[in-house]
Description:
The protein has helices at 3-21, 35-52, 55-59, 61-69, 76-93, 98-103, 110-120, 125-178, 183-238, 243-251, 256-276. The mean pLDDT is 84. It is mainly α.
Amino acid sequence: MDFTGIIGLIAGLGLIFYGITGLTDMGAMKSFIEYQSMAITIGGTIASTLIAFPISYFKKIPAQLKIAVQRNRYDPKKYIDMIVDFAQEARKKGLLSLEEKANGLNDSDSFLKNSILLIVDAIDPEKVKEMLDNELDSLDERHSQGWQFFEKASTFAPAFGMIGTLIGLINMLGNLNMDSTSGANALGQGMSVALITTFYGSLLANLILVPVGHKLHMRHNEERLCKEIVVEGVIAIQAGDNPKHIEQRLKAFLCERERGEETESGKKGKKEKKSKK
């Protein structure tokens, strides 16, 4: 589980709670609980999202939230090592020897498994590249539905917060004209209730919807990077490239910092071997 997201949510709610009460005035929370405002903001956001997206998108919400709170399952270094291992095996025993090794992979590595089996079946390299690129395009299309859903909902929430505020202001001014004796007290109380919906809309958008959408987008980028490494590596294995050259080519997908850390760890390992000798 990715505890940073949970810690961030708890910290955000805690800071808001502290800002409202100061940890001493618990009665101040009553001013921030307004069920009509919640209905306008949350209900309106759901209603607009229903108009914008089919019901099938809503059915995916539990799975998407699960992805958002899980740790990253895709490590590019792990996939580089696996590709190099396959390349060494193919260089020693030929492409047909990779079938048994590929079938032994976990279900989580199904893309790598299917990619290896394509070259084992001696499919034309251009056809393999085309098929794998189509898989990546489908991945983009499928995953984009998730983060676009939350990003669009995050634009509806503040809008309905403002609509609720306008409704509150209209009602407040109408009541003020009817009862002019209440004066500033009625004006202040009515303004406070009217602004609650804006608070709810901003809170819903910026503490839940936008972060979840961004996390889904980030998880997609992490998965796509690993699958791009697989595509590049499998094509190189099929072409019979040297495993060392394949490894160097795939490391270009890593950021400079990650490549630097790996180089540094390699140097330390060599120094330790020399010192043992």
